[in-house]
Structures are given as C-alpha cells and as structure tokens.
Amino acid sequence: MQFKTQLREAEDNWEKNLKTKISHLETENSVLKAKINQLENEAKEMKDEAKQMKDEVKKMKDDLQRKSDQKEKDDQKTKDEIQSLRTRIQQLESGDLIRQQDTIKQNQKNEKIEENMKHLIHKTEDLENRSRRDNLRIIGLPEDHDKRKSLDIILQEIIKENCSEILEQEGKVEIDRIHRSLPVLNPQLTIPRNVIAKFKNYQIKEKILQAAKKKSFRYQGTTVRITQDLAASTLKKRKAWNTIFWKARELGLQPRINYPVKLTIFLQGKVWSFNKIEEFQEFVKKRPDLNRKFDVQVQNSRESSKALCKEREHKAKEE
Q1: If we measure between CA atoms, which residue out of 265, 264, 199, 263 comes closest to residue 226?
Q2: Which neighbouring-strand residues pair with 178?
Q3: 90-105: average pLDDT
Q4: Hey, which end of the chain has fewer CB within 10 Å, N or C?
Q5: Where does the record place the L1 transposable element dsRBD-like domain (predicted)?
Q6: What crossing angle do the helices spanning 288-300 and 277-285 adopt, rounded to 10°?
C-alpha cells in the first residue's frame, strides 16, 4: 500500500516536473520565436539599408560618370578654344607683320612724296623768284605822295634824287607796271604799303639795286629802302635770319643775304656762307671768342636790338 502511494507520488512528481519542463520549453520557444522574428526584421531592415546604399552608390557612380563626361567635354572645349586662340594669334601676328610691312612701304612712299613736294615747292619758289627778277620793292614810301602824283613819276624822282647818273646814261627809266603791294589801303596799318615796280630793262633795275645797296635812298626827306622783289615764301625764310643778321652787323661781320636765303659774313679775311641757321649756330659754337662776343652783344643791346629788328621787320613786310 505504501509502495503504491510512493509510486503515485513519484508519478505525480514526474508529471509535475514534466509539465514544468514543458512550460519552460514553451517559454523558451516563445522567446526563440520572438528573437527569430526580431532577427528577421533586423535582416529585412539591413537588406533594405543595403539596397538603399546600393542605390546611393549607383547614383553617386552615375553622378561621377556624368561629371567626368562633362569635364572631358569642358576640357575638349577649352583645348579647342585654346587652339582657336592660337590660330587667331598667329593670324593677328601675320596680319600685324603684313601691316608693318605695308606701313614701312607707305612711309617710304610718303617720304618720296614729301621729297617730291619739297622739290616742286623749291622749283615753284625758284620760278616765282625768277618771274620777279625785273621787280624792285620800295619800302617805307609814305602813301600821301600817291594822292599828288602817280607812282611812276615818284619812282622817276627817287631815281633822279639818289642815282641821277642812271638817268643821265639811260634817259627815262621805262616801267612796265608799278603798284602798292596790297590792292586796298587798310586804315589800321601804321606803316605804308610796299611798292612793287616791274622794269622793262633788267640791267637798269640791277644798277638801281646796286646803288641802293651802297647808300640809303631818300625821297623828299624820307628814307626809303630799295630791295629785290622776291616770293613771299622766300621773304619769310630770309626774315628768319633777321636777328642773326643785325647782331652780326653790330659785331662788324659785314653780313649779307644772298639769293635765295644764304647768309654770308666776313671774318678773319675770309667769306663764310651758311644756308641754314643751324649751320651758323654750330659755326659760332666752335669759336669761343666769337660766341662770347655774340652773347655779350646780346646782353648789352637786348632792348635796342629788339626795337631795331621790329622796326626793320615792319619795313620789310611782305606782299
């Protein structure tokens, strides 16, 4: 009896332990299932993340490829532009070289034209001077004389008063024409207009001119100057010598202006000729004594020389 009781108790204990173990197993199974579900969810999430990362990597790869392609295009475009600029620079350099050559040729042509123009101007001036070779210019003759008698008669009287021997030799001096240098009297002018006289006989004109170089001519108490009539351009060039001419005369160098615009002076028993002012200046610089005398003379007679030159320039006023 006791054995049965013990057996029953043993069976009850065993059943009780079995149920407990089954309960523990079921609990563990539930935990395992929960963990499995969790792992599956995590795996799914990781798979989604991996897919997202793969998509992002693909997108980045595509972006990099697109940027690389664009960079290659930009690089090629830059290379093409550089090549185009080099070609353009070569064209410009070639064009500039051609223009420089054309400029040199044009300058040579211009220089040739300028030389021809100077030659033609010189020829024209020489021809005009030659056309005036029979003319004399009378400077300083008051215009009130014109109201009382003709210029032709006045000229005959000037010749008679100052070089009567010419009238004695030639008789009446024949004048082709004679007139004042300006057609209309300008009341604002303070000096009389020059008188231009054209002689029919060149030799007589030269005799009168030589006589006028030897002494001052006068007419009814007024000093008048008789000079060769020249072209206005020649007179202008001669006028440039005025300051040097009068300074040289004050220094006793016996200056003369020869045709057309050559200055001559007499120094140390020799005649020196100068075609340009620069030549005369170089000549003076090489002679300290003359240069010093010239400078001293300029300082001592600055005001008087200015007044004298101004007066003489007015008297020599060109046509």
Answers
A1: 199
A2: 197
A3: 88
A4: N
A5: 232-291
A6: 110
Query: Looking up tokens 């300082």, which residue turns up?
Result: 299
* Contact yes or no for 193/145 (Cβ under 8 A): no
Q: Which residue type is seen at 134?
A: D
DSSP letter at 141?
Answer: -
Number of other CB atoms surrounding residue 49 within 10 Å:
10
Burial of 249 from C-beta contacts in 10 A (0-12 / 13-18 / 19+): middle
Using CA atoms, how far residue 62 sits from 55, 58, 75, 76, 115, in Å, is 10, 6, 19, 21, 77
Helix axes 288-300, 242-250, angle to 10 degrees: 100
Give the CA count within 13 Å in the CB-facing half-sphere of 82: 6
Amino acid code (one letter) for 225: R
- The pair phi, psi for residue 315, each rounded to 5°, is -70, -30
DSSP conformation letters of 43-112: HHHHHHHHHHHHHHHHHHHHHHHHHHHHHHHHHHHHHHHHHHHHHHHHHHHHHHHHHHHHHHHHHHHHHH
Structure tokens at 170: 């030639």
Q: pLDDT at residue 305 above 70?
A: no
| Rounded CA separation 193/183 (Å) | 10
Q: For tokens 């093409």, what's the residue?
A: 80
Write down the residue that tokens 């060769």 correspond to: 228
Phi, psi of 151 (to 5 degrees): -65, -30
pTM: 0.55
Dist CA 202 CA 299 (whole Å):
44
255 close to 264: Cβ distance less than 8 angstroms: yes
177 forms beta bridges with: 198
User: In Å, how far are 131, 197, 315 from 127, measured between CA atoms?
Assistant: 6, 18, 25
Q: How much is the pLDDT for 185?
A: 60
Structure tokens at 308: 């004298």
At 125-168, the pLDDT tens digits run 889 899 899 999 999 999 888 778 899 999 999 999 999 898 88
